[in-house]
Amino acid sequence: MTSTDNELRVIPIGGLGEIGKNMMAIEYGDSILVIDCGIMFPDRNMLGIDLVLPDTGYLIERRDAVKGIVITHGHEDHIGALPYVLPDLNVPVYGTALSMGLASVKMKDSRGATDANFNTIEPGNEFSVGPFDVTLFRVNHSIPDAAGVIVRTPVGTIVHTGDFKIDHTSVDGRTTDFHRLAEVGDEGVLLLLADSTYAETPGYTPSEVVVGKALNRLIGEAKGRVIVASFASLISRVQQVVNAAILHDRRIGVVGRSMVDNVKLASGMGYLEIPEGMLLQPNELGNNPPEKTVIMTTGAQGEPTSALVRMANSDHPQVKIENGDTVIISSNPIPGNEAEISRTIDNLFMLGADVLYSRIEEVHVRGHASQEELKLMLRLTRPEFFVPIHGDYRHLVHHARLAASVGVDEENVFVMMDGDVLELSEQDAGLVGNIGVQNTYVDGLRIGDVDNVVLRDRARLSKDGVIVVIVPVDQESGGIVGELDLVSRGFIDSEEGDELLARAAKVVARAFERSPGRADTGYIHSKVRESLGQFIYQETRRRPMILPMAVEL
Amino acid sequence: MTSTDNELRVIPIGGLGEIGKNMMAIEYGDSILVIDCGIMFPDRNMLGIDLVLPDTGYLIERRDAVKGIVITHGHEDHIGALPYVLPDLNVPVYGTALSMGLASVKMKDSRGATDANFNTIEPGNEFSVGPFDVTLFRVNHSIPDAAGVIVRTPVGTIVHTGDFKIDHTSVDGRTTDFHRLAEVGDEGVLLLLADSTYAETPGYTPSEVVVGKALNRLIGEAKGRVIVASFASLISRVQQVVNAAILHDRRIGVVGRSMVDNVKLASGMGYLEIPEGMLLQPNELGNNPPEKTVIMTTGAQGEPTSALVRMANSDHPQVKIENGDTVIISSNPIPGNEAEISRTIDNLFMLGADVLYSRIEEVHVRGHASQEELKLMLRLTRPEFFVPIHGDYRHLVHHARLAASVGVDEENVFVMMDGDVLELSEQDAGLVGNIGVQNTYVDGLRIGDVDNVVLRDRARLSKDGVIVVIVPVDQESGGIVGELDLVSRGFIDSEEGDELLARAAKVVARAFERSPGRADTGYIHSKVRESLGQFIYQETRRRPMILPMAVEL
Fold first, then answer.
1. What percent of chain A shows pLDDT beyond 90?
2. Full set of structural domains in chain A with CATH
3. Taking the model in full, what pTM does it have?
4. Which residues of B are less than 8 Å from A503 in CB distance?
């Protein structure tokens, strides 16, 4: 796959199952435009992994071709990889004011250089990136200043929605820019790439106004202190909590590092309005009367080190949950987090709090478009070709069906996987290959030194533990001399383990009795693995990792 | 807590967070009646654990007092511990015909004696267990022949609902026995113990009829083969699939061990009616025309070794998913299983199947009562005292509020935890202590030899792996002689690991240069842990388990 001058290519690069979520490449001739540069959080099979980075190998090989990175919005899964990627790809980054503000904070928080070339772009203003003319357009999403991207290429126009929904009564008064979309639809759209996250959900996503009303009522009804947990980047939610607190004559405390940071940044940039004197300082948190207090905090997903989870575990230095507290969890569970959130709610109830959450009160709306909004996007842009992005495979399939239902030719809809290459001319499009992408894992300080072998070993260790076997070998004769030493961890409790391992040592020793006098290390190791593994499995039906260590005496 | 003759005690013993789900004890004088004997499946922090058993220590200490076990229904979390408990507590077991049938199969499947004393009881027929007069009453639940328990004690009558809902149009035509409940309510109920699983859900649980209609329509609309996955014990669902298959002139194949076993048992006992010649034999599965085939199978929760998951992974010996297949997942995700189910659905879509599930079609109804049904139960029985059982803590709190809303005195409602002891007289009740219960883990063949230390070690191993350090010690001088040998697993890939571990060996060796010549093993081990741990954390921010092994040369 080498680019020729008159072909356009679109490649979703990474998203850990959510196709193209973290990074997309648009390639024309020898120029590449990158959209988004985010991280994913590991799924539960990626034991010990902190973050997953998109695979930038393709881009780094074509370093000179990469002309810039356009950011759609300031969520981690769209900006979080910048500190890892920019040192390798030192290109300009473009985005709205809040996106650039959050990206700058990200760079500062990470080690390494902060001389990134960040360009704040006002939606509607066209700018050039190599051969591409780019315009951002406003969309509603669960963070202010979110945008989609219109990319005018020599072959035709591409519209990339970013994460979006349509909220006619949003908190900041701004709405997804229908006019721009209608205009570009009239001019002609070659390809639409659109958010599929809620493509299986009928109807419309409710407005943020619904949450505001519920928060108002619940804070009004609460007799004691109110604690609201949500996402730190969901500034409109924070604003609604502030508004409700004003209405009910309560002051507001902000707790949790990322919430404190984001409230500060958003206030400074004018995305959040908190009246003078309304914020509680940390030292006032304990003294302000409960019925005059709202605490805004993190941990709505049950994250183990978050403020709310620490409160639920009676382990927060400043906030101690008490009888009479009302806790509002203003989010929906992200799939995979259900168990942690349930445990957090249970723990809060046990401490005497009343807990309100999206299952029983309308305290959250999702940040993505439902089916009717997706149809509107398809109708406004009237694309020749369509690729559903941002979603699990089933969401893409549902979105593809929606597109067909509103008149996009079924043969012009491509359900892609990360790494797939879609090649487009003015009349035609087709999948032409896959660039081969794989996850890059960040574990602690280091990037890419945990591979699938390491993960497989961790999985095995997690299930049945490890047995280390020291095998004393005579340097002269090469035979086994003296006693084997077996030590286990994570396999069995020490009491029963001592007895079992003593028997195991005899079994292994006996296996060597029948073997030739002189043995090399490989032979010794495999003999230990075989005889010990078999004995242990027979006795316990467990398969601990066996680590034989021949030691020459 | 020693029982005196005129006191009644109720103790929820186990349920892994779902209070009293697996086992309850009712104690009067020196007699104990046990209700249910089930297992729980481990949560994701219980690494490598297969099953969790209720803590029967209290019962075994009072072995002679235990007069019998009453089973409410045949689900694993109510009968699954019988093979583990009966060898220690050889008492009669009572339950409805299907419950006893399933319990017998459980005993046969396990090793050990099968001479259990199982007694089939017709609902409505009173029988005696020590000083207790016991009557089962029918309830609707997601398995046929489910029952609640009325226990008449010298102090008063206890009603235990078991898991229940109310289905006026159930598949087998049987409904929760209102008449019996009204009667006992008229006589006077001292204590109601009632299922709280869906106490946070308003309204009524829909009837199984709703699912039948959806299955009928979807099987009718399908062009090719239809595969329905559900719970093997949900016999009414199997019956509805059979009925829909009849209506659309399809034959039915049964795939998956537990589904095959339960279909056989339920057909034999008359709980399931499959017309002669309708069942596909295993060798016919591949030949029957797709449009004439329905396959009923397991794996609706994404269980890794289940038939559906193997089909989704193209790894099932008999069923290969093809373009044109329709897969119906006839269940709701049990909290914690969402990610596995999503992955299964995605994989099925990728293989070309159309997949229908509860989020997009009404292909499942839950097995537990919602708020209106719970209120009806409270109103029918009119208990003096009330204890919500079977549910996470938040469900118990919601159920307690419901009870107060229908007139149960708030002071007479007790939200209990496993191990709590409720003591009742004719006029009074109160919590008097906790017997102290803890989970017993089954891992492979062995019971109770995995304790919290082992689980902590597995957690650490799963996160950052292990480094084994062989330290050669001179037998005479007690000093370190020769090179240290470091081996890691699950910590870092081999390429980068070799370099890092070589540097680490030098760091550890250097630590010993500054130490006294003669050192005991404890000193050597702690020195290795300290110097190596510090170096590794500094380089990687990881904390692998460090296993120093001093070897005398």
1. 86
2. 8-203+366-447 (3.60.15.10), 208-357 (3.40.50.10710), 452-552 (3.10.20.580)
3. 0.93
4. none
